Amino acid sequence: MAQKNEKTGGVVIAADLLKTYVASVFRAAGSESAEADIVADHLVEANLAGHDSHGVMRVYKYIDWVKAGQVVPNRHVTVVTDSGALVLVDGNFGYGQVIGREAMAITADRAMAHGFAAMSIRNAGHLGRIGAWAEQLAASGLASFHFVNTSGFGILVAPHGGSDRRLSANPLAAGIPVSGGRPLILDIATSVVAEGKIQVLRNKGEKLAPGLVLDGAGNPTIEPSAFYADPPGAIFPFGGHKGSGLSFFCEVLAGSLSGGFASNPGSPSAGRLVNNMLTVAFDPAAFGGAEFFSADVHRLIDWTKASPPIEPRGAVLLPGELEDQVRSERSRSGIPIDAETFHRIVMAGESVGVSAPR
Question: Which of 2, 10, 141, 308 has the CA that lies 20 to 30 A from 55?
Answer without folding.
Answer: 141
